[in-house]
Design brief:
Helices cover about 50% and strands about 0% of the residues. By secondary structure, it is mainly alpha-helical. Helix 6 crosses helix 9. The relative contact order is 0.10. The protein binds heme C.
Length: about 190
């Protein structure tokens, strides 16, 4: 089919893009989701190497540990239950992965005058370290869902210009964008 129809390559890679949304192919969504569900950094190797390889080893070794001559599904409760659980878990994780929000989008509604600031926040990489409502990552930065309650606008502005590492400085962000961003953050309560 590739010879006849050509292989789909997608658009040419653009190293300057800031809005690219990295997503795996759909048949990897369950692994991608497993990695998202397992949060602590010490456990990442369990999701990336541990679980997939254990599952693969169990499958490869199946003929050695399952020596029962029985072939009728109703007489093989352990094998059938294991298969059902695997299918249900993979389907569930695939669906979660398919409907996971984009890493460059904040879903919580705001009043129209703050819409631009919200887009700036969504497209500036804040979601990589902060959570806004349902979107973003829970750490290393604090949750910003109600940041306007904790910090006045001037303090937010100061944080953006002179943050404590590992947060990068946004001193060089264009002034109109930064103003909109600060206005947006200041009204999050
Ligand atoms: C590389 C990760 C990272 C990124 C990207 C990042 N931050 Fe942060 N941010 C942090 C960390 C870590 C802290 C806590 C710093 C501290 O302890 O003082 C923080 C603190 C803050 C605070 C102060 C919160 C408080 O409760 O005192 C604000 C406001 C903030 N960030 C806004 C933003 C915004 C807006 C963006 C995007 C334009 C952004 N951050 C991008 C990591 C990050």
């Amino acid at each position: 089919m590739s010879l006849i129809l050509g292989a789909e390559l997608g658009p040419k890679a653009d190293p300057t893009t800031t809005t690219y949304v990295p997503r795996p192919e759909w048949y990897f969504f369950f692994l991608f989701e497993l990695l998202r569900v397992i949060k602590p950094p010490e456990l990442v190797f369990v999701a990336t190497l541990g679980i997939p390889n254990i599952a693969l080893a169990l499958l490869v070794l199946l003929p050695f540990y399952d020596r029962s001559p029985e072939r009728r599904p109703t007489r093989r409760p352990v094998a059938m239950t294991a298969m059902m659980l695997t299918i249900v878990a993979m389907t569930y994780l695939t669906l979660l992965g398919a409907f996971a929000g984009s890493p460059t989008q904040i879903d919580a509604e705001v009043e129209p005058q703050y819409q631009y600031g919200k887009e700036v926040a969504a497209n500036s990489g804040c979601l990589g370290c902060h959570k806004f409502g349902e979107n973003g990552n829970d750490g290393p930065g604090p949750n910003l869902t109600t940041i306007g309650q904790r910090l006045p606008k001037q303090a937010i502005q100061r944080t953006l210009d002179n943050p404590t590492p590992p947060m990068p400085s946004f001193k060089n962000m264009p002034p109109d964008q930064k103003e909109a961003l600060v206005e947006y953050l200041g009204q999050l309560r």
